[in-house]
Design brief:
Length: about 160
């Protein structure tokens, strides 16, 4: 039974093992808690900002530039995804006041602990977070009303 329990990969472990651990645990947690898309979006965007800013600072100090594909969100090329400008008319301040901070803290803690304890390279972490951001944006593009923001995140097959 102990071999079924996985622990956070150690710093010398292969980066793919760290990424797989992060993704599997994020998928499991968001599914187990039926986390609304808005809550997952807020936590993922927080970590994109933290990791991106850290990488940007290091790149700037060493006179380098980050790869272009990491600078911006992955474009949505799904023909079924409607460009939803209606989301901008949602009362976001009052909607954000309805999120479950405890649930968000659990996801936040998971991401932080995996990044810190496994010492996952930030470039790889940012790529993984961009993949999550893509899934979130794809689902948000189909939201037609404020209630849709509180629908559980639905990840595409194979994610």
């Amino acid at each position: 039974m102990d071999e079924d329990r996985r622990t956070i990969p150690k710093p010398p472990d292969h980066p793919n093992e760290k990424l797989l651990f992060l993704r599997e645990n994020m998928v499991h947690l968001t599914s187990q808690l039926s986390m609304p898309i808005i809550e997952v979006a807020l936590v993922v965007s927080k970590y994109i900002r933290i990791v991106y800013d850290s990488l940007e600072k290091v790149a700037e100090n060493s006179g380098e530039k980050l790869p272009a594909d990491l600078l911006h969100p992955i474009p949505i090329e799904d023909p079924k995804a409607e460009s939803s400008d209606s989301i901008h008319s949602f009362p976001l301040e009052s909607l954000i006041g309805r999120v479950d901070e405890d649930r968000m803290d659990i996801l936040d803690t998971l991401i932080r602990n995996v990044l810190n304890e496994s010492e996952l390279e930030f470039i790889l972490a940012l790529q993984e977070l961009r993949d999550w951001e893509y899934e979130i944006r794809l689902q948000l593009s189909k939201v037609s009303g404020p209630g849709g923001l509180f629908s559980p995140i639905s990840l595409s097959d194979g994610f």
